[in-house]
Amino acid sequence: MSVLLTALYLISIFTLLVAAHEFGHMWVAKRFKMKVEEFAIGIGPILWRIARGRDGTLYTLRAFPLGGFVKIPGMLPDEEHLEGSFQSKPLYARFLTVLAGPLASILFGFIVFVLVGAIAGIPSDKPTPQVQIVFPDTPAQQAGVQIGDILLAINDEPVQGVEQTTQRIRQSANKSLKLTLRRDGQTLNLTVVPRQEEIEENGQKQTIGRIGVVWRTARERQPFGEVLKFSALNTVGVCLGIVDGLRRLIFGQGNIHEVGSLISIASATHAQTRLGFAEVAHFAGAFSVMLGVINLLPIPVLDGGYLFLFTVEAIRRRKLSPETMARVQMLGLVIVLAIFLTVFSLDIYKLLTGKLIR
To answer: Where are any strands of DSSP class E within the chain?
Structure first.
């Protein structure tokens, strides 16, 4: 039953996130009078032709819920003669149409945070932090910490909330800590040694300790203004966290095992089901924001790659040739395929060695 529930959540998450992302592309494309031939959720054979709009757009549901697309004619530089084509529109219209997808993903994540906060409440800072995520290949995972564990004390001193817990761990790099946890009604003690890491805060480098855990506390109903504030700050925090994680990976400061493919996403979703629907929905919102930020990377094939090429076009004051575009897109496809194979291989390794999020 748990596996079926995870599968249902996964399919729902991918469907909603893809729909939000592609809707952003379609909505802006239609504002600029581009002809949208098809709005597809999923890839592969068509399962269901939902409807054809008054403007001629065909809405389809396809076999594999792992992606989607908006089909606009005339995507190549030499196809600007086609009526209503992508290339027939000015540079700013093409730029905004592509940018709309990632922005829609980030906005959708924010909306999910607001809905969860309004219905289930926002996290409080009560003195019983609960483990929401245990990252793979971290001191917490190696010590046996599990999602759902409730932290009662550190070195026999009762905890005073998430902020105090986080500070205590940050100040204990390479020092042994005894965590007193409650799991399934039982109390247990685990020993963990926070890993020393260097970070940059307020323009200064600091050495801190991390154990690889995301903490949560009980949710509390708050005025809608507080929900909006929390959701906005959380959205910005997720964006900055992803950017910082990418920066650390690029400069060799991050942990490659923190990167994951569909296997890691499924494992994390399965873990969140143990905390209830609100946390699954919150995870989906964070995943949507991540999707938006990742799509802004300047890699051809991704939205950010097209935005980079449009910037080059603006500087050169002329479009790239179809041959150059084809070569650039092929390069981007090779890069994305190489990243996918690397991350997928890492997930297989983590699956075999028990290092997936759990």
So the answer is: 38-52, 58-71, 122-123, 130-134, 150-154, 157-158, 177-183, 186-192, 195-201, 204-210, 213-216, 219-220
